[in-house]
Design brief:
single chain, Rossmann fold, 3 domains, alpha+beta, Phosphatase 2c, domain 1, Beta-Lactamase, 490 residues, 5-stranded parallel sheet
Length: 490
């Protein structure tokens, strides 16, 4: 009798790093055979024509022919080929469009190797997961958004936090026993509430020393030495203070029925723990004074790290004087600037402002700065295209609703030409050294980054003559007030 033929898989993703990771995952399973890789939608269709794969793993934002269009054409031309859409948490509308176009199911980009293999097998059989993933993703996003909103409410307290968890968690983890514990000894949320036994102290002691979410499968050795034996699986996730220096508590989810594999919720559980940590730190806890002290030091440390991201000094260019200065209003800041060396002795000039203050803005600033520098170097002569790619990555990789205003220009020191785009930023002023010449404002040529995936930016040109000066700034300048004579509110 012939051995069962491996499932033939094609990967479609424009990011080489993502293809490499998926390739490594697939190589670990003898029943899965990677037969081709594509970087855009048209290549994907060509591979389907030539190779007749069983399953296509499809990034929905690939170029030339996007993933939705490619999925629809595959479904029409080769109905036997199953498509697994590759998405992020926030892309609910995109997920629905992919399913309507003919995708069998969808995968989150933070999927594990085992989850990927199982999803491919199920798709090959024409099956979706036991639970409605569209509803699940919406419910997960609803809870995370609720925690974020709670952290900003003046009336928030641990009672309201427990109520939010009570409302949402049981439906996200049906058939499970759930414990959310705050150290030293507070049970924030327990489900079912009337059960006789709670998780042993040894388990929580072990969680104190862990740094990431952890799964115990049926039959595994219990690391804390107790004899607890889950019928299905057990997820443990530490609730760590921002920066990870202190363990504030933990989440324990014990599967008591085998309706589905809860390991598929591991990434969400870790994100849930992080969001609970931010909420607890914000609204206080039984250790509030200690946490506040710890958080204050972490903000100071974050400010030092953030300052290290900024350029140590401006570039020295013959015939040019360049200076920059940033003074954060808090320990951390969402404002940043950069000088980026490009080809042909050109320089990228960047200034940006994240839509918030404090720790969240600092983290978003670090991400935005990295993306802007990366794509600016990669597309050294195309400022508008570089911003388009940054905008796409911000929207696909983050779920916090922040945006960043940005002015970015490519300066040609030898000619005095500046090709620039302004993504919703305060307009820089170009002051002329020539008498009678008006002051030019380099006004926005498009909206801020991180708002609309379909946004675009016009590229414009400014020219310097000897004696001209360009002044770039953020709203920290325009909103500053005289400490002696405050601005009168009207």
């Amino acid at each position: 009798m012939n051995a069962k033929r491996p499932i033939r898989v094609v990967i479609a993703d424009d990011l080489a790093l993502m293809r490499s990771g998926l390739r490594a995952f697939l190589m670990a399973y003898p029943d899965l055979n990677l037969v081709g890789e594509a970087s855009d939608g048209e290549e994907t269709l060509q591979l389907c024509e030539l190779l007749d794969p069983d399953v296509v793993i499809m990034d929905l934002k690939i170029p030339v022919l996007d993933g939705i269009q490619a999925t629809r054409l595959i479904h029409q031309r080769w109905p036997s080929i199953r498509v697994l859409a590759l998405v992020n948490f926030r892309e609910k509308a995109l997920i629905q469009s992919a399913l309507q176009a003919g995708a069998t199911d969808y995968l989150s980009k933070d999927i594990t190797a085992d989850e990927l293999a199982e999803a491919i097998r199920r798709a090959h059989q024409g099956r979706r997961s036991a639970l409605s993933k569209t509803k699940l993703g919406a419910a997960q996003a609803e809870l995370l958004d609720g925690l974020t909103q709670l952290a900003t409410m003046a009336s928030a307290d641990l009672t309201r936090l427990a109520g939010l968890l009570r409302q949402q968690l049981p439906r996200l983890f049906p058939g499970c026993q759930i414990d959310v514990h705050l150290f030293p000894d507070q049970n924030l949320f327990c489900y079912p509430a009337d059960r006789a036994e709670h998780m042993p102290e040894a388990l929580w002691d072990w969680v104190k020393g862990s740094r990431q979410a952890f799964i115990v499968a049926a039959g595994d050795e219990i690391p804390w030495g107790e004899s607890i034996e889950p019928e299905g699986e057990l997820i443990l996730a530490p609730i760590l203070s921002p920066g990870g220096k202190q363990t504030l508590g933990g989440i324990c989810i014990l599967q008591i029925s085998e309706r589905y594999r809860i390991r598929s919720r591991l990434a969400f559980t870790q994100e849930l723990a992080d969001r609970i940590a931010s909420t607890v730190v914000t609204i206080g806890s039984p250790r509030g004074g200690y946490i506040h002290k710890d958080m204050k030091q972490e903000l100071v440390d974050a400010g030092k790290i953030q300052a290290g991201i900024l350029p140590e000094k401006p570039p020295r260019l013959r015939g040019w004087d360049i200076a920059a200065r940033l003074e954060p209003a808090l320990q951390t800041s969402g404002d940043f600037y950069d000088f980026i060396p490009l080809t042909n002795n050109n320089w990228g000039i960047l200034i940006a402002d994240v839509s918030d203050k404090g720790m969240g803005a600092a983290l978003f600033m670090a991400l935005s700065n990295t993306l802007l520098r990366t794509y600016a170097i990669q597309y050294a002569t195309l400022p508008s295209f570089a911003l388009s790619l940054v905008n796409e990555r911000i929207l696909s990789d983050t779920r916090n609703g922040m945006f960043v205003t940005t002015f970015y220009g490519v300066l040609e020191p030898d000619t005095g030409r500046l090709r620039y785009v302004n993504a919703g930023h305060n307009p820089p002023y170009l002051l002329s050294g020539q008498k009678g010449k008006p002051v030019d404002q380099l006004r926005p040529t498009g909206m801020a980054l991180g708002v609309d995936e379909n946004a675009s930016w016009n590229q414009k040109i400014a020219r310097f003559t000897p004696g001209d000066m360009l002044v770039l700034y953020t709203d920290g300048v325009t909103e500053a007030q005289d400490p002696v004579r405050p601005r009168r509110m009207t």
